[in-house]
Amino acid sequence: MNYDVIIVGAGPGGIFSAYELANAGRGLRIAVLELGRALDKRCCPIDGKKVKSCIRCQTCSIMSGFGGAGAFSDGKYNITNQFGGTLYEHIGKTEAIELMQYVDSINLTHGGAGTRLYSTANSDIKRMCLQNGLHLLDAQVRHLGTDINYVVLENLYEELRRKVDFYFETAVESIVRTDGGYELCAGEKRFSCKSCIISVGRSGSKWMESVCGSLGIPTMSNRVDIGVRVELPAEIFAPLTDELYESKIVYRTQKFEDMVRTFCMNPHGVVVNENTNGIVTVNGHSYEDRSRHTENTNFALLVSKHFSVPFKDSNGYGESIARLSNMLGGGVIVQRFGDLVRGRRSTEQRIRESFVTPTLAATPGDLSLVIPKRILDGIIEMIYALDKIAPGTANDDTLLYGVEVKFYNMEVEINDRLETRCPGLYVIGDCSGVTHSLSHASASGVYAARQILKKSGE
Ligand SMILES: Cc1cc2nc3c(=O)[nH]c(=O)nc-3n(C[C@H](O)[C@H](O)[C@H](O)COP(=O)(O)OP(=O)(O)OC[C@H]3O[C@@H](n4cnc5c(N)ncnc54)[C@H](O)[C@@H]3O)c2cc1C
Q1: Three-point CA angle 102, 106, 108, nearest 5°
Q2: More exposed terminus of the chain, fewer Cβ within 10 Å: N or C?
Q3: Exposed/middle/buried for residue 341 (C-beta within 10 Å: 0-12, 13-18, 19+)
Q4: How far is the CA of 424 from the centre of ligand 1 (A)?
Q5: In what order do the strands lie in the sheet with 116-119?
Q6: Which ligand 1 atom is at minimum distance from the Cα of 15?
Q7: What atom in ligand 1 is closest to the CA of residue 69?
């Protein structure tokens, strides 16, 4: 199985690499190897009835398969250099934005037309935030919604499968350098190629680390974000979400001068489990289709931690905290804000009597037994700060789910072509440690593909 280019991973990074290469009209032989299933075969067993919480499938359908971790996401494509990754450090700010706009245009022509593009430009909310010690980051946000995002993926697959060979349920185990390129091994199968793009996302972080070790590619430790997912009545955040959809707000705590920030805001959305390498954490998304709207809005409040010397395993630290919550709660823990500040656990009864109905069946418990004091103090401080711009945020019945952990891959050494020190081997998307969003991962895919096209045309 000989190819010009092999892409490992069919998440947004891999898909947009394949799209760019396949549509270049060069007649390149391209393959995508993906350990998960095809889009229509991806199915999480949690149905809310027989299976209520994560049963730790060997291959997580939420994280793996065509569409990658983004397949059932909220489909928020943030067009900005202010968050979502540091792609601009490699390719420059202007090109990074142009590529994100290019990705947006492809999404629109593949089913996303008619979805709304929100913007922070000229928003009064920015001033209101500043007056209350909060900082609103600048961005344009295309909100596809989970449903339209899925349609876009279906359409992209329909187009790509004619031009690209997809191998699903094919986990690449090793990559070896050969005279003319690379040989990839997946079980009994052997694939060879001249150029290889690795885009295995966060779920492939451990494997990526082993590949870097075996090929002598240097890596650096990265940060981990730890916090909670907040869920409250949608009306409370409506003044922000109606105008901006997603607002990325940063707050510096008075107590420790730590930065706490909002992340992944889902108006009328649902809170969901996320399984990363067997550890259950919390996440959220929402649908564009109004009939699937809930009465709640959810968003994460996160604090970044980066360890370097002598301990440098930031992800390991985050994993330990998530494991603790899994140990105490059998998965994700939910607590009313009022119970947290009164120093008592939430119980089934307190949650039942709450005016906010949880959208995720989590275990009522006590987050202060799980989340380090410094981080939790920062989160509580920020909830009171947000209460000034969105009164009601600090209500007793506001629900906090924990823990939310954003694992970042270690940073892989890549040059400004996103190529490693092994010629023809590119590392893109979240597994590079450079991106951590749909738009940045997709843009990096287009960029790496263009580098390969440029090289093969020379
Ligand atoms: C629930 C949820 C909601 C999210 N919502 C948003 C959002 O609204 N906006 C946003 O910007 N970001 C969001 N994100 C993050 C976003 O999904 C990721 O940043 C993005 O998917 C990264 O793309 P990627 O291609 O780098 O990796 P991924 O999407 O993780 O794709 C990597 C693929 O590689 C495969 N793989 C791994 N190892 C191997 C191997 N050894 N062999 C073969 N294949 C392998 C995996 O199965 C996976 O399908 C969300 C994430 C989750 C989990």
Answers
A1: 115
A2: C
A3: middle
A4: 23
A5: 76-79, 140-143, 116-119
A6: 25
A7: 29
How many CA atoms lie within 13 Å of 99's alpha carbon, on the beta-carbon side?
A: 26
Q: Supply 94's token pair.
A: 């202007």
Stated pTM of the model: 0.86
pLDDT tens profile 369-407: 999 999 999 999 999 999 999 999 999 999 999 999 988
**Residues 64-102: pLDDT tens digits?**
999 999 898 889 999 999 999 999 999 999 999 999 999
- What are 125-177's pLDDT values in tens digits? 999 999 999 999 999 999 999 899 999 999 999 999 999 999 999 999 999 99
Reference 63, options 203, 166, 170; nearest CA is: 203
Residues in contact with 458: Cβ distance below 8 Å, sequence separation at least 6, in sequence order: none
Give dist(CA 150, CA 67) in Å, integer.
8
Residue 441 structure tokens: 């991962």
Token reading at 449: 């593909």
Structure tokens at 448: 């790496």
CA-to-CA distance for 60 and 70, rounded, in angstroms?
Answer: 13
Ligand 1 residue neighbourhood (C-beta within 6 Å)? 8-14, 33-36, 64-65, 68-70, 73-76, 78, 84, 171-172, 199-204, 207, 264, 274, 283, 285, 429-431, 436-439, 441
CA 448 – CA 195 distance, rounded (Å): 10
